[in-house]
Amino acid sequence: xxxxxxxxxxxxxxxxxxxxxxxxxxxxxxxxxxxxxxxxxxxxxxxxxxxxxxxxxxxxxxxxxxxxx
Length: 69
Known about the structure:
Strand content: under 5%
GO molecular function: DNA binding; metal ion binding
CATH architecture: Up-down Bundle
Number of helices: 3
Pfam family, one: Trns_repr_metal
Order of helices and strands: HHH
Structural class: mainly alpha
CATH topology: Methane Monooxygenase Hydroxylase, Chain G, domain 1
């Protein structure tokens, strides 16, 4: 994000700023996917208690809905 801010302050070209924004977006998307996968693995698939599995699954549904807005 600081790189984007510096590029804007330096009046970099639009294409350069957009490339940096795309890179940040890709990094955040990748991190989001990893955290979602870890949550599903640990709190849904490996959870022995059905109530806890259900709760973790419902939490993930809420997160996915918010993410896709």
